[in-house]
Design goal:
The protein is α/β, with parallel strands linked by helices and about 270 residues long. The protein is built from 8 helices and 8 strands; from the N terminus they run βαββαβαβαβααααββ.
Length: about 270
Amino acid sequence: MTLPTLFVPHGGGPCFFMDPEGGPPDPMWRPMQAYLAGLIGSLPERPRAILMVSGHWETQEVTVHIGERPALLFDYYGFPDHTYRLRWDAPGAPAVARRAADLLRGTGHAVAEEAERGWDHGVFIPMMVANPAADIPLVQMSLRADLDPAAHIAIGRALAPLRDEGALIVGSGMSFHNMRARGPQVTPVATQWDAALADAATDPDPARRAARVADWASLPHARFAHPEAEHLLPLMVALGAGGDGPAVRDYRDVVIGWAVSGFRFG
């Protein structure tokens, strides 16, 4: 069974876990939480491992984490004390990491390996919702620091064989990520950007889809939606790994005034 690939929103900081008693999040975040909670069950089969690319890790060359039991990296600021004591104790997936590295090197990509960095909140916050039992091994892979869209689509393509080997490839970011632009006054512009991105990302022609998404900066309001591209680049990896299969937007909602979408490929 070939697994699809996903681009998912990871929310804002520890948004799903702000209640120290474990109660539900702010109503604004509940649709996103419900989407993430249903991800594993929506797959054609349960993955044996997850390879995740987060908008919160950039390195000069693509880097895979080969650790057996990564810690958590609390790389958010100004939140309640209890959110710095969250736990998500899934095992690493070093064999999948090395397989990913081999696939990338085999297609001409420079790859590094490391075992010390913790999983950032672009990984553990959505995964605490999607897989609260923490029973699926996970490997994190970095973005390349040049943030080249076409290169990240090519990186995704190189990783595509993992889909036939039981690994779920997930890009974790936000389809809109301008932290200075919040509130209902942003929504009309964010909605126009979101519609243009979704039209490109779900183009039925795979070659045209890749070309249009790689040229994301030419879409309406692109640099307003993403002053920097790091939260959009995980989409490129998921799209590339999704190959020539169908592409759908399987989540859309408005949070902080932003229209935010999730996508599924393959």
